[in-house]
Structure formats: structure tokens, C-alpha cells
Design a protein that fits this description.
The protein has one domain: L-arginine/glycine Amidinotransferase, Chain A, CATH 3.75.10. It is built from eight helices and 15 strands. The strands form five sheets. It has a three-stranded mixed beta sheet, with helices on one face. It has a three-stranded mixed beta sheet with strand order 3-4-5, with helices on both faces. The radius of gyration is 17 Å and the shape is globular. This is N-dimethylarginine dimethylaminohydrolase. It comes from Amycolatopsis sulphurea. Pfam families: DDAH_eukar.
Length: 282
């Protein structure tokens, strides 16, 4: 049952991002990537810059890591670490083309004073598949992150983990099929949006039980990467196309304020707003 619109309060966030200076689609490691399709690093950088500047306009802190040649997907910083209460769990990529990214991000965290840092033994694509709700960590598997990485994340981060099975290869990371609109607090439960068909029947039942008031997205919402959104509890950054799918209207009815941005060039590599955004929770 849809909840009534209530006043939403934004919370200042701390993000780490990587400029797409070397953006390209030279290989295909997800269904959205087509090396035969032209891409523009210039356009990608302009779209990324608007995303970064939007976060800052909304009152959020944004730090940047230096991009590295030969790592065109480094722009998708969310895949490179999970930070909860200052504890950092690094990444271990499944695709060989991205393996080297993990060390650059590990070095960044070390150089910026994060001492409680663990590099995983299991394949773990970080916030791509690990989504913090404020009380539990939702953990995706099926295409990238190893199921055994979920137990490793629970041990390292010290938070309860709920495993979810992804079944549609187009939504290969959890953050392409689900995102948190409002984190759980002492006085309120978390609220999420998700695309049910991206999950196994059992995982759909788990989500319905945990989040009975969730925003349920349509296929059209998911196909434009509308579930790869970023919310601060009131302002929700979404791909421009989500204005036409109905997702934005659902959010407005819940009291959220959609902020639409063009991420079309970045989507050619299978990424959206959240993919570009690693949240640092101290």
C-alpha cells in the first residue's frame, strides 16, 4: 500500500567520484556495452561534471580520485569500495579488464587516512552489489559478486547482510535494479525502489517482507537505468529518461524531489548516476 506524501529531509552526503577522462567502450562485459557503437569521452565528461556539480549544489561533499589510462570503467567508482561507519571493504572485480582499479582505490583510501580497510578475498564489486539501507546491507549476486562475499562483507563491516539473487543479465549489479530512497533511522524504516522482475521469486518475497511500502518500478523505469538513482532522503538524482517512465511521478507522490540529468553517454558502458558515485559513510 502506498504511503502518504510526507515531508522529506535531505541528509548531507560524502561522495567519491572519478572523472571519465579515459572513458571508452573498447570491450563488452555487460549487455549494454557495444564496442561498435561510437562513444565520446568529451560528452561523458560533460555529463559526469553536471552530476558532480549537482551533488555539490545540493550540499554534498564530493572528492575525486585521479583517473588512470587504460581503465575506462574507473568512472564507475561505486564498484570500488563499500564504506559503513568508517570501515572500508575494497573491491575484487570479476572482469580482468577492471582488476587494476581496485588497487588505485585502495591506495586512495589509505592515503586519505582510512586505516580500517580490508581488501576482499572473494569477488566483490562493492556498492554495485552491496546496498546499505541504514540497518541492513542488501547484497546482490548472480552475475558479478560471489555469494561467499556476502558473508565476508558481514564479517568485515559488522552489519547484517541480506542476500538477493539477480536473474536478468541486463541488471547485472544490484544497483541497476534497486536503490535506497531513505535510509532507516531510529524513528523510521528504510524506503527503497526496485524492479521486481530483476530478482528471483524468493528474493522478491524477501523484498516484499522487508519493504512492504517500496516503490515498485516498471520495465521502462529499469531500462533507462532509473533504478541507478542516488537519493539524499529528499532529492533523488535520476536519468533524464525517468521523467517519462512514471518513476519520477511515483517519487513525487511519496514526497521526494526528482532531479533529472542526462547520462546517456555513460549508459553506453552500462552505468548511471549511482555507478559513478561511491558513498563514504563515516
Amino acid at each position: 500500500m502506498q504511503g502518504p506524501a510526507v515531508p522529506r529531509v535531505p541528509t548531507p552526503r560524502h561522495y567519491l567520484m572519478c572523472p571519465p577522462q579515459y572513458f571508452a567502450v573498447d570491450y563488452s562485459i555487460n549487455p549494454w556495452m557495444d564496442p561498435a557503437q561510437p562513444v565520446s569521452a568529451k560528452i561523458a565528461l560533460a555529463q559526469w561534471t553536471r552530476l558532480r556539480d549537482t551533488y555539490r549544489r545540493l550540499g554534498h561533499a564530493v572528492e575525486e580520485i585521479e583517473p588512470q589510462p587504460g581503465l575506462p570503467d574507473m568512472v564507475f567508482a561505486a564498484n570500488s569500495g563499500t564504506v559503513v561507519d568508517g570501515r572500508v571493504l575494497g573491491a575484487r572485480f570479476r572482469a580482468s579488464q577492471r582488476t587494476a582499479e581496485a588497487e588505485h582505490f585502495r591506495r586512495w583510501f589509505t592515503e586519505h587516512g582510512y586505516r580500517d580497510l580490508t581488501m576482499p578475498e572473494k569477488v566483490n564489486e562493492a556498492e554495485g552489489d552491496l546496498v546499505w539501507t541504514g540497518r541492513v546491507l542488501l547484497a546482490g549476486t548472480g552475475f558479478r559478486t560471489d555469494p561467499a562475499a556476502h558473508a565476508e562483507a558481514q564479517e568485515v563491516l559488522g552489519v547484517p547482510v541480506v542476500s538477493l539473487q539477480l536473474v536478468d543479465a541486463r541488471y547485472y549489479h544490484l544497483d541497476t535494479a534497486l536503490f535506497v530512497l531513505a535510509e532507516a533511522t531510529d524513528s523510521a524504516d528504510a524506503q527503497i525502489a526496485y524492479y521486481p522482475a530483476a530478482f528471483s521469486p524468493g528474493s522478491q518475497r524477501v523484498l516484499r517482507r522487508l519493504f512492504p511500502d517500496a516503490v515498485l518500478a516498471t520495465a521502462a523505469d529499469a531500462e533507462c537505468f532509473g533504478l541507478n538513482g542516488v537519493s539524499d532522503g529528499r532529492n533523488v538524482v535520476l536519468p533524464l529518461e525517468a521523467r517519462a517512465t512514471g518513476l519520477g511521478e511515483q517519487l513525487v507522490r511519496r514526497g521526494y524531489e526528482p532531479v533529472y540529468l542526462d547520462i546517456s553517454e555513460l549508459r553506453k558502458a552500462g552505468g548511471g548516476p549511482k555507478c559513478c558515485t561511491l558513498e563514504i559513510r563515516k
